[in-house]
């Protein structure tokens, strides 16, 4: 049996990730492709609840500590992600390790560089496709809905966008596809479907899931 694929959505807050992720999941489900939808942070676990409290401003965490909690929240899901993929299910995730690295690095803590932030992610399953929904922080803010959680501030989001670009340039960017998220919902959805379908059809069937490399 062909393994499932690992497809990830990334982008700023209000870039449309969650909406587009849901649309892709329903589209593939209707077509009979076995898919599972996840998101990070997964706020349902005990670690996820600590993250949620931090994001909502109810608790404080040292920068490295919260970074490692976000990473641990991915690692605790790995056995389940791998089991799904090995069972032929395509796993579609709203945010993954790219968010993990860039939001932490955007804090400008001198001992928390982009390269430091990536170390705990080494060895995680590597996405077969990463769909980056690109929008400026200014345009994202115009969509409304910012201001409730800790990172939803334009200055930080500007740095996040720049760091996404830096990461794309330094990481092996071969699985990374940038989609203009300023287009209409329908145009964005159609571009996503095209990339996702060619990823799912690609003959990676005999290739095992890869790992994030040092
Ligand atoms: N975020 C998300 C991180 O800082 N690190 C991570 O590893 C992940 C997955 O959490 F501001 C940030 C990004 C965002 C916040 O995410 C909550 P959602 O997708 O808006 O719930
Ligand atoms: Mg958010």
TrEMBL record:
One of its GO terms (cellular component) is nucleus. SUPFAM superfamilies: P-loop containing nucleoside triphosphate hydrolases (SSF52540). It comes from the Eukaryota. One of its GO terms (biological process) is dTTP biosynthetic process. One of its GO terms (molecular function) is ATP binding. Residues 9-192 form the Thymidylate kinase-like domain. Keywords: ATP-binding, Kinase, Nucleotide biosynthesis, Nucleotide-binding, Transferase. The keyword GTP-binding does not apply. This is Thymidylate kinase.
